[in-house]
Fold this sequence. Notes:
Rossmann fold; alpha/beta; 2 domains; 14 strands; about 40% helix
Amino acid sequence: MIAASEFLNFCKGYEIDFFSGTPCSYLKPLINAVIDDPEIDYYGATNEGDALAIVCGASMLKRKGVVMFQNSGLGNAVNPLTSLSFPFRFPFMMIVTHRGQPGGPPDEPQHELMGQITEEMLNTMRIKWEYFPLDRDALKKSVAGAVAYMEETNMPFAYVLQKGTISPQDLKKSKSDEPIGQRKTIFEENLQVPYSQRASRTEAIQAIVRHTREKDFVVATTGKTGRELYTINDCAQNLYMVGSMGCASSFALGAALCSRDKRWIVLDGDAAALMRMGNLATIGAYKPANYLHIVLDNEVNDSTGGQDSVSNSVSLAAAADSCGYNKIYSTDSIEELNTILADLGEKDGPVFIHLLIKKGSPKELGRPKIKPFEVKERMMQRLQET
Length: 386
């Protein structure tokens, strides 16, 4: 068995000190040690894919990260593994438990199939991996090799963690005994503009661009939102998601937590925000003051032909309010959007703005000519300059 502290000390020796993940009983001693270690930042996520995106966002600030989760959650991480970390070339360490391992200890029926295909899935996604070592010397050598691989390739490296690999460790951090107290959430919306008279996405993005500031960095969700931002105002302070739908908000969260002197603006879509609504709770829990989340809601999946989303039956702003955002707005007026943006302070966050727009985009809508990893690299350079 390995003591969790031994692994963490090896990680800290390589300045790997940013962790995110979701729990698993196999991971219990490691997560407990991470949470209790004052030299490590740990941010729990509601979803394995969002944990991965949070770590990728942190790497924009050159924070070296680890994401940890159960192999059942590997399915939730497939999309950001293949359409975020791969095209953008984000290196990080991944620890995946091996529940349901063939020939391993008895486990619950829901782990049977994933236990059989965990290794195959990692191989299929071209993720270099090995079993978590069982002794200190092997672990020291393995971590050094993993770090060298990540530095050489800018790709993730995975450990598959078997049951009983890490010595038991209790969580020392105690749960607060303070009562939650009274909570009362009332959010009223008055959205009266007919659909056809709403502003376009282009008009909304133009307004947002006019109100960006010197130290604002913008993450635009996949599809036409990113393409329109690129067409309107391509610059080094923009990152265009080309996949990983729904992960723009978690990616920006990781970046915002590591660069408190800069404001991070998320341009989200209604369908994307609905796809990973759990991240609203994570943002509300960690409360980055330098975070502005704008959902451009046209009630359809515009990039795929205009099929309806279900956003017209959901108050996304009320959801953000319930999740703990600091300031929340909902409007169907571009004039009101301009007023809101002009009045916001740089440290008012997390702020949520829900703007109703209509579907449609320019006929000659461009696509980024710069590759995703080049977009990442130029933003990282700009982050260093500011």
